[in-house]
Design brief:
5-stranded parallel sheet; 5-stranded antiparallel sheet; alpha/beta; 31% strand
Length: 235
């Protein structure tokens, strides 16, 4: 996922440290830093994740979070604090996690992965099939299978949806970190790969195997290895 992230802390060194650690985890993150809650609230950007220091002068982290929630801001808020006394207040503003200072890079990576997993599990797409619009969780899509000018979409509920869109359309629509093409007729979700046997994939929830073409084999396995490294705690 290409996440848009805000870091809000009145200590510039903390902002820069977290920004550097996040850039190491994922170079394609878009990251903005703010030295006060007021500056964050003035931003017109929509953020997926907000790292928010609780103890800031003038407008503290809890008050900033309350303002964000009053605006119906759905961002994942991760508070930066070491004081358990704030946890009850943080619950009221639907904080996602706490991180203590100094920031541990392993814990930071873990909380980012947890947020990404939750985002993916809640992310839906609309699929038009035979006059009906289906809202499907992206996490429930096993693979896309091409036929003629259309696509079959296999899901974890054993439902196969018939889409008029091409495989190329779905390949471009899906997150390249989560999905990859294995063959001219298949795009698969990394999260549902059960095992690889030779040039065939066995997917969870599916009896049929999916081929890996010689042309796409190298690129597919390279992307799969990256996915495994980045998501090893969730596999």
């Amino acid at each position: 996922m290409n996440l848009n992230i805000a870091i809000c802390d009145d200590e510039k060194i903390i902002c820069n440290t977290i920004k550097q650690l996040l850039s190491t985890i994922r170079p394609d993150f878009t990251i903005h830093t703010f030295l006060s809650g007021k500056k964050l609230l003035e931003s017109d950007q929509n953020y997926d994740i907000i790292f928010l220091d609780i103890e800031m002068p003038e407008l503290d982290g809890i008050a900033t979070a309350e303002s964000l929630r009053q605006r119906q801001n759905p961002a994942f808020i991760i508070f930066l604090t070491s004081y358990a006394e704030y946890m009850l207040m943080a619950f009221k503003v639907r904080a996602f996690r706490f991180l203590t200072k100094p920031i541990d890079s392993c814990k930071l990576q873990e909380v980012i992965k947890e947020a990404e997993e939750e985002m993916l599990s809640n992310q839906k797409i609309s699929i038009h099939s035979h006059g009906t619009i289906h809202l499907v969780n992206i996490a429930d899509i096993i693979c896309f299978e091409a036929y003629g000018d259309g696509t079959y979409i296999h899901t974890t509920s054993n439902e196969v949806l018939d889409s008029p869109y091409t495989l190329k359309y779905w390949l471009q629509a899906m997150d390249a970190r989560q999905f990859s093409q294995t063959h001219k007729s298949y795009v698969v979700s990394f999260r549902h790969i059960k095992h690889i046997a030779g040039n065939n994939l066995q997917m969870n929830y599916m009896k049929q195997t999916i081929p890996i073409s010689r042309r796409l084999n190298g690129k597919f396995k390279e992307k799969l290895n990256i996915y495994i490294r980045e998501n090893s705690k969730h596999i």
